[in-house]
Amino acid sequence: MSFLTLEGVSKYYGDFGALIDMDLSVERGEFISLLGPSGCGKTTTLQAIAGLIPVTRGRMTLDGRDITRLPVNQRGLGIVFQSYALFPHMTVAENVSFGLEMRKMPKHARDTQIAEMLKLVHLDAHAHRYPRELSGGQRQRVAIARALVIAPPVLLLDEPLSNLDAKLREEMQFELRRIQRKVGTTTIMVTHDQAEALSISDRVVVMEAGRATQIDAPYRLYEHPKTEFISGFVGKTNLLPGCVSRSAAGTSVTLAQGQCIAVDGGDFADGANVTVCLRPEKLFFTEEARGTLAGRVEERFFLGSQWLYRISSPLGELEVSCANDGSAPVAEQADIHLAWADDVARLVATKP
Q1: Which of 16, 102, 138, 195 is the most buried (most CB within 10 A)?
Q2: Residue 186, number of CB atoms within 10 A of its CB
Q3: In 10 A of CB 346, how many CB atoms?
Q4: Residue range 236-349, CATH number
Q5: CATH tag, 4-227
Q6: How confident is the model at residue 352 (pLDDT cuts 50, 70, 90)?
Q7: Cα–Cα distance measured from residue 291 to residue 259, given in angstroms and rounded to the nearest whole number
Q8: To the nearest 5 percent, what fractions of the chain are helix, strand and coil?
Q9: Is the pTM for the entire model greater than 0.70?
Q10: CB neighbour list of residue 28: distance below 8 Å, 6 or more residues apart
Q11: What are 110-142's pLDDT values in tens digits?
Protein backbone atom coordinates (compact mmCIF):
# COMPACT_ATOMS: atom_id res chain seq x y z
CA MET A 1 0.00 0.00 0.00
CA SER A 2 1.24 3.50 -0.84
CA PHE A 3 2.16 5.85 2.01
CA LEU A 4 -0.32 8.59 1.04
CA THR A 5 -3.34 7.92 -1.17
CA LEU A 6 -6.11 10.06 -2.61
CA GLU A 7 -9.08 8.16 -4.04
CA GLY A 8 -11.68 10.09 -6.00
CA VAL A 9 -11.06 13.24 -3.99
CA SER A 10 -13.21 16.16 -5.17
CA LYS A 11 -13.93 19.68 -3.98
CA TYR A 12 -16.95 21.58 -5.30
CA TYR A 13 -18.05 25.11 -4.62
CA GLY A 14 -21.68 24.94 -5.70
CA ASP A 15 -21.57 23.59 -9.24
CA PHE A 16 -17.92 24.51 -9.78
CA GLY A 17 -15.43 21.67 -9.44
CA ALA A 18 -12.14 23.06 -8.12
CA LEU A 19 -10.85 19.49 -7.81
CA ILE A 20 -12.46 16.57 -9.61
CA ASP A 21 -11.88 12.86 -8.91
CA MET A 22 -8.22 13.11 -7.94
CA ASP A 23 -6.53 9.71 -7.66
CA LEU A 24 -2.94 9.83 -6.42
CA SER A 25 -0.63 7.35 -4.70
CA VAL A 26 2.56 8.68 -3.12
CA GLU A 27 5.33 6.42 -1.85
CA ARG A 28 7.23 7.06 1.36
CA GLY A 29 10.12 9.49 0.75
CA GLU A 30 8.88 10.50 -2.70
CA PHE A 31 9.01 14.10 -3.98
CA ILE A 32 5.86 14.94 -5.96
CA SER A 33 5.12 18.23 -7.73
CA LEU A 34 1.63 19.43 -8.60
CA LEU A 35 2.08 21.47 -11.77
CA GLY A 36 -0.35 23.58 -13.72
CA PRO A 37 -1.59 27.08 -14.52
CA SER A 38 -3.55 29.28 -12.10
CA GLY A 39 -6.95 27.84 -11.24
CA CYS A 40 -6.13 24.26 -12.25
CA GLY A 41 -6.72 22.78 -8.77
CA LYS A 42 -3.18 22.21 -7.54
CA THR A 43 -3.46 24.43 -4.44
CA THR A 44 -6.90 22.98 -3.70
CA THR A 45 -5.31 19.52 -3.74
CA LEU A 46 -2.62 20.62 -1.29
CA GLN A 47 -5.16 22.26 1.01
CA ALA A 48 -7.31 19.13 0.96
CA ILE A 49 -4.34 16.96 1.97
CA ALA A 50 -3.44 19.45 4.73
CA GLY A 51 -7.01 19.51 6.05
CA LEU A 52 -7.34 23.25 5.44
CA ILE A 53 -10.51 22.68 3.41
CA PRO A 54 -13.10 19.87 3.68
CA VAL A 55 -13.49 17.70 0.61
CA THR A 56 -16.86 17.16 -1.07
CA ARG A 57 -16.24 13.48 -1.65
CA GLY A 58 -13.43 10.94 -1.83
CA ARG A 59 -11.04 9.36 0.64
CA MET A 60 -7.50 10.10 1.81
CA THR A 61 -5.27 7.76 3.78
CA LEU A 62 -1.86 8.32 5.34
CA ASP A 63 0.20 5.28 6.29
CA GLY A 64 -2.98 3.20 6.34
CA ARG A 65 -4.95 5.69 8.47
CA ASP A 66 -8.02 7.46 7.09
CA ILE A 67 -7.41 11.21 7.41
CA THR A 68 -10.27 12.41 5.20
CA ARG A 69 -12.21 14.05 8.03
CA LEU A 70 -9.39 14.72 10.47
CA PRO A 71 -8.83 18.39 11.43
CA VAL A 72 -5.56 19.96 10.33
CA ASN A 73 -4.01 19.86 13.83
CA GLN A 74 -4.50 16.09 14.06
CA ARG A 75 -2.80 15.27 10.75
CA GLY A 76 0.64 16.35 11.91
CA LEU A 77 1.80 17.51 8.49
CA GLY A 78 4.47 20.11 7.83
CA ILE A 79 3.34 23.08 5.72
CA VAL A 80 5.40 25.84 4.09
CA PHE A 81 3.26 28.65 2.71
CA GLN A 82 4.08 30.91 -0.22
CA SER A 83 4.61 33.87 2.14
CA TYR A 84 6.65 31.67 4.58
CA ALA A 85 4.40 32.99 7.45
CA LEU A 86 7.32 33.47 9.85
CA PHE A 87 6.73 35.17 13.20
CA PRO A 88 8.46 38.58 12.81
CA HIS A 89 8.91 39.09 16.57
CA MET A 90 10.69 35.75 17.00
CA THR A 91 14.30 34.89 16.19
CA VAL A 92 15.20 32.15 13.71
CA ALA A 93 15.65 29.66 16.56
CA GLU A 94 12.37 30.68 18.17
CA ASN A 95 10.50 30.29 14.89
CA VAL A 96 11.90 26.79 14.43
CA SER A 97 11.17 25.96 18.07
CA PHE A 98 7.49 26.89 17.87
CA GLY A 99 6.13 23.52 16.74
CA LEU A 100 8.20 21.63 19.30
CA GLU A 101 6.92 23.86 22.09
CA MET A 102 3.35 23.15 21.03
CA ARG A 103 4.17 19.46 21.45
CA LYS A 104 5.51 20.11 24.97
CA MET A 105 8.99 18.84 24.15
CA PRO A 106 11.50 19.38 26.99
CA LYS A 107 13.84 22.33 26.42
CA HIS A 108 17.06 20.28 26.29
CA ALA A 109 15.70 17.95 23.59
CA ARG A 110 14.17 20.92 21.82
CA ASP A 111 17.45 22.83 21.69
CA THR A 112 19.26 19.79 20.31
CA GLN A 113 16.74 19.35 17.48
CA ILE A 114 16.75 23.05 16.64
CA ALA A 115 20.53 23.07 16.38
CA GLU A 116 20.52 20.00 14.12
CA MET A 117 17.82 21.46 11.87
CA LEU A 118 19.51 24.86 11.53
CA LYS A 119 22.74 23.11 10.62
CA LEU A 120 20.90 21.10 7.97
CA VAL A 121 19.60 24.27 6.31
CA HIS A 122 22.92 26.14 6.76
CA LEU A 123 21.50 28.69 9.19
CA ASP A 124 23.25 27.68 12.40
CA ALA A 125 25.16 30.99 12.39
CA HIS A 126 21.90 32.97 12.16
CA ALA A 127 19.95 31.42 15.04
CA HIS A 128 19.54 34.73 16.90
CA ARG A 129 18.60 36.89 13.92
CA TYR A 130 15.07 38.03 13.14
CA PRO A 131 13.31 37.34 9.81
CA ARG A 132 13.68 41.00 8.76
CA GLU A 133 17.46 40.59 8.98
CA LEU A 134 17.52 37.67 6.53
CA SER A 135 17.52 37.39 2.75
CA GLY A 136 14.59 35.82 0.91
CA GLY A 137 16.43 32.53 0.52
CA GLN A 138 17.31 32.45 4.21
CA ARG A 139 13.71 33.13 5.25
CA GLN A 140 12.60 30.32 2.99
CA ARG A 141 15.02 27.93 4.69
CA VAL A 142 13.75 29.01 8.12
CA ALA A 143 10.21 28.12 7.00
CA ILE A 144 11.39 24.72 5.79
CA ALA A 145 13.29 24.08 9.03
CA ARG A 146 10.24 25.02 11.11
CA ALA A 147 8.10 22.60 9.10
CA LEU A 148 10.61 19.74 9.21
CA VAL A 149 11.70 19.97 12.85
CA ILE A 150 8.47 18.30 14.02
CA ALA A 151 9.37 15.28 11.83
CA PRO A 152 6.13 15.36 9.85
CA PRO A 153 5.12 12.30 7.82
CA VAL A 154 4.49 14.59 4.83
CA LEU A 155 5.88 18.03 3.96
CA LEU A 156 3.55 20.27 1.93
CA LEU A 157 5.04 23.17 -0.02
CA ASP A 158 2.81 25.85 -1.55
CA GLU A 159 4.83 27.73 -4.23
CA PRO A 160 7.79 27.92 -1.81
CA LEU A 161 10.18 29.60 -4.27
CA SER A 162 7.86 32.07 -6.00
CA ASN A 163 9.00 35.09 -3.96
CA LEU A 164 12.67 34.67 -4.87
CA ASP A 165 14.55 36.29 -7.75
CA ALA A 166 15.43 34.09 -10.74
CA LYS A 167 19.03 33.24 -9.76
CA LEU A 168 18.22 32.54 -6.11
CA ARG A 169 15.17 30.56 -7.12
CA GLU A 170 17.29 28.23 -9.24
CA GLU A 171 19.81 27.78 -6.44
CA MET A 172 17.09 27.06 -3.89
CA GLN A 173 15.49 24.40 -6.11
CA PHE A 174 18.51 22.18 -5.65
CA GLU A 175 18.94 23.20 -2.01
CA LEU A 176 15.36 22.16 -1.34
CA ARG A 177 15.92 18.79 -3.00
CA ARG A 178 19.16 18.28 -1.03
CA ILE A 179 17.35 18.91 2.25
CA GLN A 180 14.47 16.62 1.29
CA ARG A 181 16.80 13.78 0.34
CA LYS A 182 18.82 14.22 3.52
CA VAL A 183 15.74 14.04 5.75
CA GLY A 184 13.79 11.58 3.59
CA THR A 185 10.43 13.26 4.21
CA THR A 186 7.63 12.55 1.75
CA THR A 187 7.09 15.89 0.00
CA ILE A 188 4.34 17.38 -2.15
CA MET A 189 5.01 20.75 -3.79
CA VAL A 190 2.69 23.08 -5.67
CA THR A 191 4.30 25.05 -8.50
CA HIS A 192 3.45 26.65 -11.84
CA ASP A 193 7.11 26.61 -12.89
CA GLN A 194 7.80 23.76 -15.32
CA ALA A 195 11.59 23.85 -14.94
CA GLU A 196 11.25 23.76 -11.16
CA ALA A 197 8.96 20.73 -11.24
CA LEU A 198 11.02 18.81 -13.81
CA SER A 199 14.39 19.43 -12.13
CA ILE A 200 13.73 18.24 -8.58
CA SER A 201 10.71 15.90 -8.61
CA ASP A 202 10.49 12.13 -8.64
CA ARG A 203 7.12 12.46 -10.35
CA VAL A 204 5.04 15.35 -11.63
CA VAL A 205 1.24 15.64 -11.59
CA VAL A 206 0.08 17.93 -14.41
CA MET A 207 -3.31 19.45 -13.66
CA GLU A 208 -5.84 21.14 -15.90
CA ALA A 209 -9.34 22.38 -14.99
CA GLY A 210 -9.38 20.54 -11.66
CA ARG A 211 -8.18 17.20 -13.01
CA ALA A 212 -4.87 15.34 -13.09
CA THR A 213 -4.17 14.86 -16.80
CA GLN A 214 -0.83 13.01 -16.53
CA ILE A 215 1.20 11.67 -13.62
CA ASP A 216 4.68 10.67 -14.67
CA ALA A 217 8.42 10.89 -14.14
CA PRO A 218 9.80 14.24 -15.39
CA TYR A 219 11.65 12.75 -18.34
CA ARG A 220 8.65 10.75 -19.58
CA LEU A 221 6.34 13.69 -19.05
CA TYR A 222 8.54 15.87 -21.24
CA GLU A 223 9.30 13.28 -23.91
CA HIS A 224 5.90 11.57 -24.02
CA PRO A 225 3.13 14.08 -23.27
CA LYS A 226 -0.38 12.68 -23.48
CA THR A 227 -2.21 15.83 -24.62
CA GLU A 228 -1.65 19.05 -26.54
CA PHE A 229 -2.01 20.98 -23.30
CA ILE A 230 0.75 19.02 -21.58
CA SER A 231 3.11 19.22 -24.55
CA GLY A 232 2.70 23.00 -24.67
CA PHE A 233 2.69 23.65 -20.93
CA VAL A 234 5.66 21.45 -20.04
CA GLY A 235 8.37 23.15 -22.08
CA LYS A 236 8.15 24.66 -25.56
CA THR A 237 6.83 22.69 -28.50
CA ASN A 238 5.78 23.01 -32.12
CA LEU A 239 2.28 21.66 -32.79
CA LEU A 240 1.58 20.47 -36.32
CA PRO A 241 -1.75 19.00 -37.54
CA GLY A 242 -1.52 15.76 -39.49
CA CYS A 243 -3.16 12.51 -40.50
CA VAL A 244 -1.95 9.00 -39.62
CA SER A 245 -1.10 6.54 -42.38
CA ARG A 246 -0.46 2.89 -41.49
CA SER A 247 1.07 0.38 -43.90
CA ALA A 248 3.24 -2.72 -43.92
CA ALA A 249 6.28 -0.42 -44.10
CA GLY A 250 5.36 1.32 -40.84
CA THR A 251 3.46 4.34 -39.59
CA SER A 252 3.76 7.89 -40.88
CA VAL A 253 1.94 11.19 -40.57
CA THR A 254 1.08 13.40 -43.50
CA LEU A 255 1.48 17.07 -42.55
CA ALA A 256 0.34 20.23 -44.28
CA GLN A 257 1.67 20.70 -47.81
CA GLY A 258 1.78 16.91 -48.13
CA GLN A 259 5.03 16.38 -46.22
CA CYS A 260 5.20 12.88 -44.78
CA ILE A 261 7.24 11.93 -41.70
CA ALA A 262 7.85 8.57 -40.05
CA VAL A 263 6.54 8.30 -36.48
CA ASP A 264 5.70 5.87 -33.72
CA GLY A 265 1.96 5.68 -34.33
CA GLY A 266 1.08 4.40 -30.87
CA ASP A 267 -2.61 3.49 -30.62
CA PHE A 268 -3.81 5.83 -33.36
CA ALA A 269 -5.79 4.23 -36.17
CA ASP A 270 -5.12 4.66 -39.87
CA GLY A 271 -6.64 7.95 -41.02
CA ALA A 272 -6.82 9.46 -37.52
CA ASN A 273 -6.37 13.21 -37.24
CA VAL A 274 -3.54 13.93 -34.82
CA THR A 275 -1.27 16.68 -33.63
CA VAL A 276 2.48 16.16 -34.04
CA CYS A 277 4.60 17.60 -31.23
CA LEU A 278 8.17 18.59 -32.10
CA ARG A 279 10.34 20.12 -29.38
CA PRO A 280 12.40 23.12 -30.60
CA GLU A 281 15.69 21.49 -29.53
CA LYS A 282 14.93 18.41 -31.66
CA LEU A 283 15.02 20.43 -34.90
CA PHE A 284 18.35 21.40 -36.46
CA PHE A 285 19.66 23.38 -39.42
CA THR A 286 21.00 21.32 -42.30
CA GLU A 287 21.88 21.42 -45.98
CA GLU A 288 19.14 21.17 -48.57
CA ALA A 289 18.29 17.55 -49.29
CA ARG A 290 15.30 15.34 -49.88
CA GLY A 291 13.09 15.28 -46.81
CA THR A 292 14.34 18.55 -45.35
CA LEU A 293 12.01 21.47 -44.71
CA ALA A 294 12.72 24.85 -46.30
CA GLY A 295 12.19 27.97 -44.22
CA ARG A 296 13.34 31.46 -43.39
CA VAL A 297 14.66 32.88 -40.13
CA GLU A 298 12.25 35.62 -39.09
CA GLU A 299 13.70 36.37 -35.64
CA ARG A 300 16.43 35.13 -33.33
CA PHE A 301 16.87 35.57 -29.59
CA PHE A 302 20.06 35.07 -27.57
CA LEU A 303 19.34 33.21 -24.31
CA GLY A 304 22.91 32.76 -23.10
CA SER A 305 23.28 29.00 -23.28
CA GLN A 306 21.23 28.78 -26.47
CA TRP A 307 19.77 30.60 -29.46
CA LEU A 308 16.04 30.56 -30.09
CA TYR A 309 14.90 31.06 -33.70
CA ARG A 310 11.44 31.74 -35.10
CA ILE A 311 11.20 30.15 -38.54
CA SER A 312 8.53 30.66 -41.21
CA SER A 313 7.91 27.47 -43.19
CA PRO A 314 5.27 25.71 -45.30
CA LEU A 315 4.15 24.03 -42.05
CA GLY A 316 3.64 27.40 -40.37
CA GLU A 317 5.79 29.18 -37.81
CA LEU A 318 8.28 26.94 -36.00
CA GLU A 319 10.60 27.48 -33.06
CA VAL A 320 14.11 26.05 -33.19
CA SER A 321 16.47 25.99 -30.23
CA CYS A 322 20.22 25.53 -30.75
CA ALA A 323 22.94 25.24 -28.13
CA ASN A 324 25.34 28.18 -28.03
CA ASP A 325 28.61 26.51 -29.00
CA GLY A 326 30.42 29.79 -29.61
CA SER A 327 29.95 29.80 -33.38
CA ALA A 328 28.19 32.61 -35.24
CA PRO A 329 24.37 32.35 -35.17
CA VAL A 330 22.25 32.00 -38.27
CA ALA A 331 21.33 35.45 -39.59
CA GLU A 332 17.80 36.84 -39.58
CA GLN A 333 16.08 36.62 -42.98
CA ALA A 334 18.42 33.79 -43.98
CA ASP A 335 16.94 30.98 -46.07
CA ILE A 336 17.52 27.68 -44.28
CA HIS A 337 16.56 24.00 -44.24
CA LEU A 338 15.46 22.03 -41.19
CA ALA A 339 15.50 18.35 -40.32
CA TRP A 340 14.83 16.13 -37.33
CA ALA A 341 15.24 12.50 -36.40
CA ASP A 342 12.36 10.12 -37.10
CA ASP A 343 11.97 9.08 -33.47
CA VAL A 344 11.52 12.54 -31.88
CA ALA A 345 8.03 13.37 -33.17
CA ARG A 346 5.25 12.65 -30.63
CA LEU A 347 1.59 12.21 -31.48
CA VAL A 348 -1.33 13.39 -29.37
CA ALA A 349 -5.03 13.47 -30.15
CA THR A 350 -6.17 16.66 -31.84
CA LYS A 351 -8.47 18.77 -29.69
CA PRO A 352 -12.08 18.40 -30.82
Answers
A1: 138
A2: 22
A3: 22
A4: 2.40.50.140
A5: 3.40.50.300
A6: low
A7: 8
A8: 30, 35, 35
A9: yes
A10: 3, 186
A11: 999 999 999 999 999 999 999 999 998 899 899
